[in-house]
Amino acid sequence: MGGSYGWIMIAELDLFVLYRWMLALICMVYAAVVTWRSLSHWLAYFHESRQSAVLGRYTIVLLLRTRWRRFVSEFVQITALLVALALLIYAHHGVRG
């Protein structure tokens, strides 16, 4: 094998790339935990009393009545921007070699 451990070559290990991946992983886990905690707190709030349960049902009705065409158009726009970003990153890696 000559110094290779799976997909990581010890001689080619770049600390900045490792730092970027670890930072991305930490940020992703943090965002997931914060989102989960916020969602669980809102659900607990909506089950506290009769008034908050009515408010919770009203919120669900509002979410269900969203305008799907507008939502889909926004989603398509976000997807197109992400594809453009991916192509830009791909082109950058092609130029860099």
Descriptive account of the structure:
- With 97 residues, the protein is mainly α.
- It has a domain at 1-49.
- 78% of the residues lie in helices and 4% in strands.
- It has helices at 15-46, 50-64, 68-96, and strands spanning 4-5, 8-9.
- Strands 1-2 form a two-stranded antiparallel ribbon.
Write a brief structural summary.
The protein has helices spanning 15-46, 50-64, 68-96; strands at residues 4-5, 8-9.
Enumerate the spans where pLDDT stays under 50 for 5 or more consecutive residues.
none
Count of strand segments = 2
Mean pLDDT: 85
| Radius of gyration, in angstroms, nearest whole number | 22 Å
| Main sheet characteristics | 2 strands, antiparallel
Structural class: mainly alpha
Strand and helix layout:
Layout: E1 4-5, E2 8-9, H1 15-46, H2 50-64, H3 68-96
Question: What would the keywords be for this entry?
Answer:
78% helix, two-stranded antiparallel sheet, 3 helices, 97 residues, mainly alpha
